[in-house]
Amino acid sequence: MKKVITADDAQDAFSGFPVVLGTVASARDNIITLAMCHIFSFRPPLIGVGIGPRRFSHGLFRESRDFAVNIPNRSMLRAVEICGSKSGKNVDKFEAAGLTREKAERISAPLIAECPVNIECLKVKEVEAGDHTWFIGEVVAARKDESYDKAEMLLYWGEYRVIGDLVK
Question: 3-class DSSP state for residue 112?
Fold first, then answer.
């Protein structure tokens, strides 16, 4: 028998969300740790990131014509936590987290060299959805380390995790 639960409890039914580091070009390039990242379309390839309007990065993403989605792995947890706990208004997150800016091929936003996957996006749409704005971008370039292992990808839902056992 199933019991009735609250909307907050329903959110807890999800096992986790992928953790990414979003980057955007500004006077001082910024990084934001995001657990709201999703593929919105395969054709054309669209990826969206959700950012709350109270975040400093929200204004930067709103003003920018492009952004990058950088996928970290488990070894980057400390950098992920630094980028998620400091404000880009006061701190150069590249410096604070010990990360390396890398020039993108097709966009103005920097890439993060240490991330095994970098996805360059041209912003095509903004969608207000409750307490977040989804910035949706068309993938115009992407690259991946040959040794990238999805099992090392970070997930977040109240705590950081990695993908578990293969079921099928």
Answer: strand
Query: For the whole model, what pTM was predicted?
Result: 0.93
CA angle 160, 136, 156 (to 5 degrees): 5
Q: What is d(CA 59, CA 15) in angstroms, rounded to the nearest whole number? A: 30
**CB of 86 closer than 8 Å to CB of 93:** yes
Of the candidate CATH numbers 2.60.40.1820, 2.60.40.10, 2.30.110.10, 2.60.120.10, the domain formed by 40-146 belongs to 2.30.110.10
User: Quick check: 5 and 44 in contact, CB under 8 A?
Assistant: no
Q: By three-state DSSP, how is residue 150 classified? A: helix
Print pLDDT tens along the chain (168 aa): 989 888 888 877 777 789 999 999 988 899 999 999 999 999 999 999 999 999 999 999 999 999 999 999 999 999 999 999 999 999 999 999 999 999 999 999 999 999 999 999 999 999 999 999 999 999 999 999 999 998 889 988 888 888 776 556
Distance CA 100, CA 45 (A): 27
Q: Pick the closest to residue 59 from 24, 103, 35, 33 (CA basis).
A: 24
